């Protein structure tokens, strides 16, 4: 059974310039342990899709229609029921770690809050779980890092903290909106490797949002190519990369600086990159 089943989803945004149909009738699904990627140029509607699915768009500014059934609850027609799921069944990994975390609270406090979202627990248990989560995302010296404030960690380390916070609630779906585009390339590879490793272990499904076909190629099972709020092309990763059908997808492919041989596996050197990432 699918973790997420989206049918004919549309999102209209009320802007000063009028109503924009930012998402225009998209249909897709994600199975457990699957990574499905939405790729498209800037303004194509990727973030609006992610925010709409998480019901993070204000009701007076966005009108959402269609169906999106997540873990048995229709996000569109059952918003109250879904509010209870958000931050539990589904977690968001945002693009900019620095602004996603509070600068005035320690990593430990913020991770602890995420752990408590799953359910009340004694202090010692929260501390134990926080340490375990930082180990899972391969942060060195976790006990030391828990006492630090966000500005004392590198961008790559902060992104790992956000992944730990997302995992704290044992979600069935992770929504990652450009989780690595603020990072440099080696750190980026380490984070993507980490996500795949965690997926292997926890079976979590991932909705990946990116404008980068290099990223999509590395992590995806299926890719949907988005343009002006619609999917212009959908398919298995090999099909989209090896045999793109639309000019738009070909252009996205051409924008990837270097495409090595495609063997369906992450690059052999990405393990090294992930070690580099862990050290940064
Ligand atoms: N707050 C807003 N006010 C007005 N228009 C908006 C707002 N947010 C998004 N839009 C418009 O909605 C459309 C889709 O935007 P969206 O942010 O979903 O694109 P995106 O694919 O995520 O782009 P990017 O790659 O730049 O993040 C665009 O035309 C954008 O201009
Ligand atoms: Mg976006």
TrEMBL record:
GO molecular function: ATP binding
Keywords per UniProt: ATP-binding, Cell membrane, Membrane, Nucleotide-binding, Transport
Domain of life: Bacteria
All residue ranges annotated as the ABC transporter domain in the record: 4-253
CDD domains: ABC_NikE_OppD_transporters
Gene3D superfamilies: P-loop containing nucleotide triphosphate hydrolases (3.40.50.300)
Subcellular location(s) of the protein: Cell membrane
Membrane topology term: Peripheral membrane protein
Family of this protein: Belongs to the ABC transporter superfamily.
Protein name: ABC transporter ATP-binding protein
Taxonomic source organism: Pseudarthrobacter quantipunctorum
């Amino acid at each position: 059974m699918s973790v997420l089943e989206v049918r004919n989803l549309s999102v209209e945004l009320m802007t000063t310039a009028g109503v924009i149909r930012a998402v225009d009738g998209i249909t897709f699904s994600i199975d457990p342990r699957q990574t499905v990627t939405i790729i498209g140029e800037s303004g194509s509607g990727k973030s609006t899709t992610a925010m709409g699915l998480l019901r993070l768009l204000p009701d007076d500014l966005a009108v959402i229609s269609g169906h999106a059934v997540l873990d048995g609850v229709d996000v569109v027609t059952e918003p109250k029921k879904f509010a209870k799921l958000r931050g539990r069944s589904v977690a968001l990994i945002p693009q900019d770690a620095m602004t996603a975390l509070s600068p005035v609270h320690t990593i430990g406090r913020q991770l602890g809050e995420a752990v408590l979202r799953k359910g009340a627990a004694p202090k010692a248990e929260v501390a134990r779980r926080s340490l375990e989560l930082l180990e899972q995302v391969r942060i060195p010296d976790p006990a030391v890092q828990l006492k630090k404030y966000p500005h004392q960690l590198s961008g790559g380390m902060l992104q790992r903290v956000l992944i730990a916070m997302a995992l704290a609630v044992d979600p069935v779906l992770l929504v990652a909106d450009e989780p690595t585009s603020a990072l440099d390339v080696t750190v980026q590879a380490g984070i993507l490797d980490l996500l795949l490793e965690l997926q292997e272990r926890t079976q979590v499904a991932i909705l990946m949002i990116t404008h980068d076909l290099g990223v999509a190629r590395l992590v995806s099972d299926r890719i949907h190519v988005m343009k002006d709020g619609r999917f212009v092309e959908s398919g298995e990763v090999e099909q989209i990369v090896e045999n793109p059908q639309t000019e738009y997808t070909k252009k996205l492919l051409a924008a990837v600086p270097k495409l090595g041989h495609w063997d369906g596996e992450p690059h052999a050197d990405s393990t090294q990159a992930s070690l580099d990432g862990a050290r940064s």
